[in-house]
């Protein structure tokens, strides 16, 4: 399970773990955001995530509270991205500019738009969302680390690019052995 502020690197990490382990990954945004950015009804969203969580192995990235308990109950490891705001903002700006300029499809035909990039409404702009939620996500991470839900849950906190590189080096080494 991978959690962190929008733009922190959750999906990149999930893809790398998936490649290194051969385990399929699920991006929660891709399930939740249906065509036209319409949300999947909560019961259908929960059912789809529960079906993935019931598998023997999975990699899931995202921060949806409505499915967190199901995932946490079955996860053996959680990776918490807790990077500095300046780094997250530079990443999300670069990512969003690339997606808009290239008209990249995200999920289900959805694309980011130029006008969303300049909006200050966090419900419209992922950049504004990342800015506004960064501090709360950092506080949530500190509380989670102080009181993990289970003793047997392996927790990896990624709080710097050095920690991120170290984690990726471990993935490469593990993939080379298998």
Number of helices: 8
Q: Supply Rg.
A: 16 Å
Largest sheet: 3 strands, parallel
The level-1 CATH class: Alpha Beta
CATH architecture heading: 3-Layer(aba) Sandwich
Strand order of the largest sheet: 1-6-7
In the CATH scheme, what's the topology name? Rossmann fold
Helical content (DSSP H or I, runs of 4+): 55-70%
What structural class do you assign from the helix and strand content? alpha/beta
Number of domains: 1
The end-to-end distance, rounded to whole angstroms, is: 22 Å
**Regions with little confidence, pLDDT below 50 for 5+ residues:** none
Mean pLDDT: 94
The tally of strands reads 7
Description:
Helix content is 56%, strand content 12%. The protein is α/β, with parallel strands linked by helices. A hairpin with a 3-residue loop joins strand 3 and strand 4 (38-39). It is globular, with a radius of gyration of 16 Å. It starts with a strand and ends with a helix. The model has no long low-confidence stretch (mean pLDDT 94).
């Amino acid at each position: 399970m991978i959690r962190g502020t929008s733009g922190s690197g959750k999906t990149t990490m999930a893809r790398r773990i998936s490649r290194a382990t051969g385990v399929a990954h699920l991006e929660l945004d891709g399930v939740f955001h249906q065509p036209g950015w319409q949300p999947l009804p909560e019961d259908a969203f929960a059912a789809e995530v529960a079906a993935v969580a019931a598998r023997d192995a999975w990699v899931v990235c995202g921060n949806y509270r409505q499915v967190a308990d199901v995932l946490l109950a079955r996860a053996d490891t959680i990776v918490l991205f807790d990077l500095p705001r300046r780094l997250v903002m530079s990443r999300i700006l670069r990512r969003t500019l690339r997606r808009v300029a290239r008209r990249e499809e995200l999920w289900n035909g959805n694309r980011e738009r130029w006008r969303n990039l300049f909006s200050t409404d966090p419900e419209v702009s992922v950049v504004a969302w990342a800015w506004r939620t960064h501090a709360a996500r950092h506080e949530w991470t500190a509380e989670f680390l102080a009181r993990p839900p289970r003793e047997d849950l392996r927790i990896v906190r990624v709080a710097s690019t050095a920690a991120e590189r170290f984690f990726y080096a471990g993935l490469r080494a593990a993939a080379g052995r298998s």
